[in-house]
Structures are given as structure tokens and as C-alpha cells.
Design a protein that fits this description.
Chain A: This is WD repeat-containing protein 74. Chain A: Keywords: Repeat, WD repeat. Chain A: It holds the Pfam family WD40. The complex is a heterodimer of chains A (409) and B (354). Chain A is mostly beta strands and 409 residues long. Chain A has a domain at 354-398. Chain A has 3 helices and 28 strands. In chain A, the strands form 7 sheets. In chain A, strands 3-2-1-28 form a 4-stranded antiparallel β-sheet, with no helix packed on it. A 4-stranded antiparallel β-sheet of chain A has the order 4-5-6-7, with no helix packed on it. Chain A is globular, with a radius of gyration of 23 Å. In chain A, 44% of the residues are buried. By secondary structure, chain B is α+β, with helices and mostly antiparallel strands. Chain B folds into 3 domains: 1-28, no CATH class; 33-83; 104-345, Brix domain (Rossmann fold, 3-Layer(aba) Sandwich), CATH 3.40.50. Chain B contains 9 helices and 11 strands. Chain B has helices at 2-28, 40-75, 104-112, 116-119, 138-149, 163-172, 236-246, 285-294, 297-304, and strands at residues 127-131, 153-155, 177-184, 187-195, 201-210, 227-231, 259-266, 269-282, 306-313, 317-327, 336-340. In chain B, strands 1, 2, 3, 4, 5, 6, 7, 8, 9, 10 and 11 form an 11-stranded mixed β-sheet that branches. In chain B, α8 (285-294) packs antiparallel against α9. Classes of the chains: A mainly beta (409), B alpha+beta (354).
Chain lengths: 409, 354
């Protein structure tokens, strides 16, 4: 008999993820307890059309009336309901030149979770940043019927030249950072719309060679603190900046030899997940710059996006190898992988998703506790395998010994 | 002392060896493997015994099968079905990336990808062939062979230009693909195929190169556009590589030329062959006489106007193996890969990617 090795995937806790790809399709992937946590494509929204290639996506996964913002290659920004995929509102860019078009595609998008006081309850605020550095902040009224853009959008430019490749809005939604090709990372106060900090390029190296800056990915390290930024560069460096300390990186370290394409922070404020252009994913302790461990599991294409689940110890990664993968953050094991047929551009997790069997009637708070329990269970389940494996190996060796004893007796 | 002990043990072993061979088999059945025995002599003895047994069993099996067949022949029944041998290919690991023929998403992706304009014949493929910096002996010969295989291919000397500059130049001159032949120690050892203007970059390892002049009884290809045969590019990655290769050749072959270029994928190795073929009507007298003995007149009729396809190999012969597939054009530093071969993928002999 041929020896076939079966890839063992322990399966994920109940999770719901949305992926976006080159053809503008949105796919909903769900994993449930019933099916042993095997992730599956549940729904597919949209028709394949290469001009609708999704460039950036952002989700506001509140309990009531969640929203999903998607920026497309053709320049439009769509607001979609992440529950059933209904198009709520589409901002096409025929009228407006700045903030995303065919020539000046969107590079970053953020949907604000915080409510602004002056606007009504059914409105949402959207920040989009184009490659040339035009930032547009607009609020959209979403009454039950038609949606309208309320007020004039606030626009400003972040940079004169260069190309904005990464942008990120802090959890508190008061600050945003921008960085890119030939743009040092800079932090903006969104309320006053002023630049509050710019980084300084690192010094030339011992040979006198200067590495032109090119930031490809960025994130804020901490939920509560907007002063620590983690940046990934094209020259395979991960840098930690501290606004309060200095303008040059506090720590910078190399990660393999391909450009860093994704950087995501953990909830604990010290771990970052780093993905690169040749499909390697690793977690680093950013305080010391030490490698905690690599996520190994046949990842063969560039990682485009990594998303951390806000409650469960799970991250999702997707990229050019057309797979969506769920990983355990503690054991760094592959939980589940789904083949999605297209080059994926980004992934978001819907944290409100619950297993339907538990969910429907019960009030919200017990639900949360249930989920927590589940996570605990998952933890428990996840930790034993190495022990088990050890046992197995012991047993194996023991039996071998026994047999050999038999032979020698 | 030590000698004595050893000797004593050895003697013991010799006495026991017979029993031991029997005993474990009785207790643990098939569990006993020769590799578990530590003593080499005994191990080899057990191994030889096992091997002998297996041989006998096999012979028996073959004999039984042959008997069955012979009987079936005599009785005029249908022959019992021959078992299909188990090969590495047909026991390949299950792979969800294998393309399915009814996948509409795949067709949509095909329409949207970088090669569709060439493959829909909106653009005529125009190929630029160049080399690495140092190029001698077998390199130029291989290139001249390649030029005769690929229609509308142009060789440009590499000079000292950066590859990125060459890519820019080729884009400007409306080339659709760029091939770089890399040589090492005067022997071509890698092939870089870059789709232009924004197609992927595939890096292949090139081995077993036999040039045209080294092939015995080779033919000389005509300037007709060749037909293209792509075999076994089944997975999504393979499909993409297949389309990359397809985009090198014109999509409207001259069938009069009877010239065929084959890219055959087997276990992730892509074999390149270039043939001329001819169909001949042949009356095979020997076959006739043989056939008449066993079969009826119908077979005779078939044999008379049988069409034979004859092949003559021409052009180079080589083997490619995909190492990386990069998104976008050549960029070693900032490039993102769609697929990279990593050593950790080689944990199974039955896992293939193309």
C-alpha cells in the first residue's frame, strides 16, 4: 500500500471570515463545531470581473447593523452588509477626482466604528487613502431607503511625491498613519487633520549605502497607545517606532529575505505576526525583536493579509497561493485551510459570528460566555497534541524495545 | 573474557536462532520485520527467507493469472481484466487545487488573466530571447535551436544591461514574452520566462539538454507555425504555467507544417520535445499473415488500410522543473511570489504541484 500522509487539521473554533480577491468576488468562509471545525465556503457574492478587483476592505462588526466597506480597482467604494451581501451604498468616483480612481487606486480604507456625535445613528464614516496620498474622510447617511453622502467630504494630501502603500487607523480612531514608497511613516491627527509626527530615515550603513525607504505594511502595536508603530519594509525589515521616544526606529530586525507584506499586532500588545512575499509567516516578540516561532504549513505564495480574531486565539492569513488559512496563535499550528481559487487580496474576520445552534434565542451575554468556554476548550484541545505525540512516540519506542527484547530473549 | 562472553552469546544465538525465527512469527504474526533484528547475520537470514517466500508467492500468483487467461482464451470468453499497476501518479495525494472542467470561476479567471489577450489572438506573440551575462558554447547553440522552435522570436545580445531595463525595453517594443537562458559553466541550466507587460515570471530549472545536432536522425524543422501539445497541467498552478507556455506560441498553427511541440508534465517535470510527424497508409504484410491465424477477416480489412503516424524528432530536447512563479515581472528584491518551491513541501513522493 502506498504510504499516504494525511494532513491533520485540528479544525478551528466557530469562526466566520470574508475574503476578497482579484476578480472582485467576496467569499464567506465559516467553520462550525458541527463539522469538526472544518472551514468551508458558505457564500459567494459578486460576479467575476477583473476591473472590480478588491484593493482594500474594512469591516465594522458591531452587533447591530454591521457594515463592510470595499474599495475596488475601478475606483468605487462599496458599502456592503456582511451578513447577507446586500449592496447598501456605492460611492462611484465619476464625480470626484481625488480619493481613488483607475489612475490613482485606493491603497487603504477604514470604516469608523466610533459614532460621531453630531451625525445621526445610521450614518458611518469612511476614510480612504489613494496611492498618491489623497485622503478622503466622508460620512455616509444610511437611512433605511436611499443612502446619501452627508456634508462635504474632508480631503487632504499626506504626501507630495511617492506612493502610499500602507495606511492604518488606530483603534481609538483619532490617529492614522501613512507610509509607502519614498514616504517615511507619518502619523496624523484625524480631528485636526494635522501631521503630528514623521519618522526619520535610518542612517547609512557601514558601507555608506542608503536604503531608500519603502514601507509595505504597517500597524499600531497597542490598542490603547497610538505611539507605537510597527512597520514592515520592502527590504525585509520590521521596525518598531515609538513616537514618544525618537524619530528613528527603536528596534529593527530582518525577517528572511523577501519583502514584508503583512504585519498584524496581537491583542497583548507585544506580539506581532509578520508575513512576507515568499509565503513565510512568523510571530515576533516586538519588545526584544526575538522570533517566537514560524507558522509552518505549506504556505507557498506571498501573504497579502493577516487578520487577528478579537477574542479567539486564531489568526487568518491569505495570499497569492489562493488559500485561506486559520492558525492557532499559541501552538502556531494550522487549524484549517480553504482553497479559494483566486489570488486573494485581503481577509477580514467577523467577530460577531456564533454557532447558530447555540445562538438564536439565548441573550447576548451568556453567548459570549459560551464562546469563551469554547475558546478555553479549544485551548485545552490545542495544547495536548504535543504531549500526546510524545506519548505516542514513547509508546512506539517502548513497543519496539519490547519486540527487540523478544527477539533477543 | 570479553571474547568468551561474545563467543558464548554467539553460540547461544546460533542454538536459538532457529527457535527465534519461529517464535516471533507465532506471537506477533506479521509484526516482525527483519529490520528489528539487531544481529546482522540473523537479520539477513530472515530477510532472505522472507524474500524467497515472496518470490514464490508472486510466481504462484502470476501462474494462476496466466492459467485463467489461457483458459478464457480457449473457451473464447472475455479475458479477465488485467489489474492496473499502482504508480506514483495514480496514487497521487488528493489535491483540491486540481481544475475542474465545469468551474465557471476558472473560466472567468482565465478571461481576466495576463495571457488572455495573446491567447484570444488579440496580440501576436512576439518573444525576446536573451541570455545571462556570460554566454558561450552550448548557450548560443541552444538559443539558435530555440529560435527555430518558437516562431517570431528575436535574439538580443544581453550586453551589460540590467534585466529590469531589458524588461522595460521589451515592454516598449511590444514584446509579449521574454525568455532568459541562464548558463552556468557554459551549460544552460535555467530558464526564466517573463510574461509582458505585467505577466508572471516563471523560473525553471533546465536539465538534460540535448541539442538538435546531437540527436541522431534528427529532422530540420520548417518555418511553419507549430502545433502545441500541453500534457497533464492539471492543478491551478499547472494551468497557469500551461497558459504561460501557451502564450509563447502562435495560436493558429499551420497544420500543413506537421510540426508539433510538446510540453509533457509528469511528476512536476516538464519534458520538452519537438517533432515532425507524417501519416502514412501502410499495408503491413507481416501483420496480415499473423492476424489471419487468430482473427477473422475483419482484422485483415483493418490491417490493409491502416494509417501509421511516424515521428521524427527535431529540435532540442530538455526537461524543465518549476522553481518559482513570481507575481509581476522580474523583481528579485521586492517581488511577491505566487508559488515558491520550499523543501518542506517535499515530504511526500506522491505530492505534485503542477
Amino acid at each position: 500500500m502506498p504510504r499516504t500522509s494525511v494532513v491533520e487539521c485540528p479544525g478551528c473554533p466557530p469562526i466566520r471570515a470574508l475574503t476578497f480577491d482579484d476578480l472582485g468576488l467576496i467569499k464567506v468562509i465559516e467553520a462550525r463545531h458541527k463539522e469538526n471545525g472544518v472551514a468551508k465556503v458558505v457564500e459567494r457574492w459578486g460576479d467575476p470581473d477583473s476591473s472590480k478587483c478588491v484593493l482594500a476592505a474594512s469591516i465594522d462588526d458591531r452587533e447591530f447593523d454591521p457594515l463592510l466597506a470595499v474599495a475596488r480597482k475601478c475606483g468605487s467604494v462599496e458599502l456592503i452588509s456582511p451578513v447577507n451581501g446586500d449592496l447598501r451604498f456605492s460611492l462611484s468616483n465619476g464625480s470626484r477626482v481625488d480619493g481613488g480612481s483607475e489612475e490613482d487606486p485606493v491603497s487603504g480604507l477604514h470604516l469608523f466604528k466610533k459614532k460621531t456625535l453630531q451625525s445621526s445613528s445610521r450614518s458611518c464614516t469612511l476614510l480612504s487613502c489613494s496611492k498618491k496620498g489623497h485622503v478622503v474622510l466622508r460620512s455616509v447617511e444610511l437611512p433605511s431607503g436611499d443612502a446619501t453622502v452627508s456634508g462635504t467630504p474632508l480631503t487632504w494630501t499626506v504626501c507630495g511625491s511617492g506612493e502610499v502603500l500602507c495606511s492604518k487607523v488606530h483603534e481609538s480612531e483619532d490617529y492614522a498613519l501613512f507610509g509607502g514608497k519614498r514616504i517615511e511613516v507619518n502619523v496624523w491627527d484625524l480631528e485636526k487633520r494635522t501631521r503630528i509626527w514623521t519618522a526619520k530615515s535610518p542612517p547609512k550603513n557601514s558601507l555608506g549605502i542608503f536604503d531608500p525607504t519603502c514601507f509595505t505594511s504597517a500597524t499600531f502595536l497597542n490598542k490603547d497607545d497610538h505611539r507605537k508603530l510597527v512597520m514592515g519594509t520592502k527590504s525585509h525589515q520590521v521596525r518598531l517606532y515609538d513616537i514618544s521616544a525618537q524619530r528613528r526606529p527603536v528596534i529593527s530586525f530582518d525577517f528572511l529575505e523577501a519583502p514584508i507584506t503583512a504585519v498584524t499586532e496581537d491583542l497583548n500588545g507585544r506580539t506581532v505576526y509578520v508575513g512576507n512575499g515568499s509565503g513565510d509567516l512568523a510571530s515576533y516578540d516586538i519588545r526584544t525583536g526575538k522570533l517566537l516561532g514560524r507558522f509552518s504549513g505549506k504556505c507557498s505564495g506571498s501573504i497579502k493579509s493577516v487578520a487577528r480574531h478579537p477574542e479567539l486565539p486564531v489568526i487568518a492569513s491569505c495570499g497569492l497561493d489562493r488559500y485561506l488559512r486559520f492558525w492557532d496563535t499559541e501552538s502556531r499550528q494550522l487549524l484549517s485551510a480553504v482553497f479559494l481559487k483566486q489570488h486573494l487580496t485581503s481577509v477580514v474576520l467577523d467577530s460577531q459570528f456564533k454557532d447558530e445552534v447555540v445562538g438564536s434565542d439565548a441573550p447576548v451575554i451568556p453567548d459570549a460566555s459560551v464562546e469563551l468556554d469554547e475558546t478555553l476548550d479549544e485551548d485545552k484541545e490545542d495544547t495536548p497534541p504535543p504531549v500526546k505525540r510524545k506519548k505516542k512516540s514513547k509508546e512506539g519506542s517502548g513497543s519496539k524495545k519490547k519486540k527487540t527484547k523478544k527477539v533477543t530473549e | 573474557m570479553g571474547y568468551k562472553q561474545r563467543k558464548g552469546k554467539h553460540d547461544d544465538g546460533d542454538d536459538d536462532s532457529y527457535k527465534k525465527d519461529e517464535k516471533p512469527k507465532m506471537t506477533s504474526g506479521q509484526q516482525l520485520l527483519p529490520s528489528m533484528i539487531k544481529n546482522k547475520e540473523k537479520r539477513s537470514a530472515v530477510h532472505a527467507k522472507l524474500k524467497e517466500q515472496k518470490k514464490l508467492e508472486k510466481r504462484k500468483k502470476v501462474k494462476a493469472r496466466d492459467d485463467l487467461e489461457r483458459r478464457a482464451l480457449e473457451l473464447g470468453e472475455e479475458l479477465p481484466p488485467r489489474p492496473v499497476p499502482r504508480t506514483i501518479e495514480n496514487t497521487r495525494e488528493a489535491d483540491e487545487t486540481i481544475c475542474k472542467p465545469d468551474d465557471e470561476e476558472l473560466f472567468a479567471a482565465n478571461d481576466a488573466d495576463e495571457f488572455s489577450s495573446v491567447l484570444k489572438q488579440e496580440h501576436i506573440p512576439k518573444i525576446l530571447i536573451t541570455t545571462c551575462r556570460f554566454n558561450s558554447t552550448r548557450g548560443p547553440e541552444f538559443i539558435s535551436d530555440l529560435l527555430s522552435v518558437i516562431p517570431n522570436a528575436h535574439y538580443y545580445k544581453r550586453g551589460t544591461y540590467d534585466l529590469k531595463k531589458i524588461v522595460e525595453y521589451a515592454k516598449k517594443k511590444d514584446f509579449t514574452s521574454l525568455i532568459v537562458v541562464h548558463t552556468n559553466r557554459r551549460e544552460p541550466d535555467a530558464l526564466l520566462v517573463i510574461g509582458l507587460p505585467d505577466g508572471p515570471t516563471a523560473h525553471f530549472k533546465l536539465t538534460k539538454l540535448v541539442l538538435r545536432k546531437d540527436i541522431k536522425n534528427h529532422g530540420n524543422p520548417t518555418s511553419h507555425k507549430p502545433e502545441l501539445v500541453l500534457n497533464n497541467f492539471t492543478t491551478q498552478l499547472g494551468h497557469r504555467i500551461g497558459r504561460l507556455i501557451q502564450s509563447l506560441f502562435p495560436q493558429d498553427p499551420n497544420f500543413r507544417g506537421r510540426r508539433v511541440v510538446t510540453f509533457h508534465n509528469q511528476r512536476d517535470f516538464i519534458f520538452f520535445r519537438h517533432h515532425r510527424y507524417i501519416f502514412e497508409n501502410k499495408e503491413d504484410k507481416q501483420a496480415d499473415t499473423k492476424n489471419t491465424k487468430n482473427k477473422d477477416d475483419k482484422a485483415e480489412g483493418v490491417a490493409k488500410d491502416r494509417v501509421i503516424a511516424r515521428l521524427q524528432e527535431c529540435g532540442p530536447r530538455f526537461t524543465l522543473k518549476l522553481k518559482t512563479l513570481q507575481h509581476g515581472t522580474f523583481d528579485t528584491k521586492g517581488g511577491e511570489y505566487e508559488w515558491v518551491h520550499k523543501p518542506e513541501m517535499d515530504t511526500s513522493r506522491r505530492r505534485f504541484f503542477l
